[in-house]
Amino acid sequence: MRPFPPGIPIGDVPEAEREYALALHRMVSQLDSLCTEFEAALALFDLTESDEGKKYKFWFNWQFIAANAAASAVYKFDEAMEHIKINLNGCRSIARKIDAPRRRNATKAFSNYFPGFEGVRHSGQHSGLYGSPAKIAEQASPGSVLTINCLSGRKLETDYDGQTASLEISQDTLVKLRKVRNLYWEAFYPVDPFSAALNSSLAQFMDDP
Description:
Layout: H1 18-49, H2 59-89, H3 92-95, H4 100-113, H5 117-125, H6 133-139, E1 150-152, E2 155-160, E3 163-168, H7 171-188, H8 193-201
Antiparallel strand pairs: 1-2, 2-3
Helix pairs in contact: 1-2, 1-7, 2-5, 4-7
């Protein structure tokens, strides 16, 4: 059972801020949808690792599809956090009530858990990044063999902006993403005491993460 997400009391905000409050509600909820998106990609990757999955002709291609979908979910999670920040700037009545230090801690946790996530995502989505010698020189990590969107076990690796970036497609990574989601949600529970109380009363049944 996962925690209940915080709601945004749209009816309580000034009329001029309501569009931002609606967008804020969508982005806060989307953090959970993106955890599920990563989980679905992980399930496909796990299938390709199994004896049953390897019976299929395209199992190896499916691994890359799953890995790139997982990287995309992490990238979109960061985008959602950025747009939460933007919408808070347009909805000051909510911004004043949230736990700002906890929100900053969530952002820091994301950065610590997912260094280089942008490069991993971009390498699977933009072949033009490596489309010419000049482009390759821009992305290559000095002193090493060029790596472009490669799988090493469960780790998706690539050279991007002069460094090697990676993302592990694993349950541990999913747990980290959920932890960031939970930290972010905790920052918003002051504007939704009901959900906060509900989570507290059901804490013993929570298994996510």
